[in-house]
Amino acid sequence: QVQLVESGGGLVQAGGSLNLSCATSASIFSINAMGWYRQAPGKQRELVAVTTSGGSTNYADSVKGRFTISRHNAKNTVHLQMNSLKPEDTAVYYCKAVIAAPGQWYEYWGQGTHVTVSS
């Protein structure tokens, strides 16, 4: 069982920045992929950014050039640096970890952290 704890959310004005953190209870080296998702009121949860154990990253088109996902291996954390925030970035942001095992994948989610961007 992997526990994930997000932090760093809050209220920020449009154009501002926030840095979200996701701390894992497992060694980050045992996790195949970690990502950030978000869910705005009345909308489906969507992928924001993901990073794999191989070092590759992928971003939603809506955040490319503004958000950066990074791993801090020594602290077993993943960060999401969010710059040039827009009101449409307002959502609950969730951290997700994926661990591969023979024949199946395990997914773990954090409890979420609220991000509100005012115009």
Structure description:
The strands form two sheets. Strands 2, 4, 5, 6, 9, 10 and 11 form a seven-stranded mixed β-sheet that branches. Strands 1-3-8-7 form a four-stranded antiparallel β-sheet, with no helix packed on it. The mean pLDDT is 94. It is built from no helices and eleven strands. β7 and β8 form a beta hairpin. Helices cover 0% and strands 56% of the residues. The protein has 119 residues and is an all-beta fold. The chain is globular. The chain has strands at residues 4-7, 10-13, 18-24, 33-39, 46-52, 57-59, 67-72, 77-82, 91-101, 104-109, 113-118.
Ordered list of secondary-structure elements with their pairings:
Layout: E1 4-7, E2 10-13, E3 18-24, E4 33-39, E5 46-52, E6 57-59, E7 67-72, E8 77-82, E9 91-101, E10 104-109, E11 113-118
Parallel strand pairs: 2-11
Antiparallel strand pairs: 1-3, 3-8, 4-5, 4-9, 5-6, 7-8, 9-10, 9-11
Series of secondary-structure elements, N-terminal to C-terminal: EEEEEEEEEEE
| Termini separation | 40 Å
- Please give the share of residues in helix: under 10%
What Rg, in angstroms, do the CA atoms define?
14 Å
Percentage of residues in strands? over 45%
Report the count of strand segments: 11
Helix and strand content put the structural class at mainly beta
Major sheet, described briefly? 7 strands, mixed
Mean pLDDT: 94
* Shape label: globular
- The helix count comes to 0
Uncertain residue ranges: none
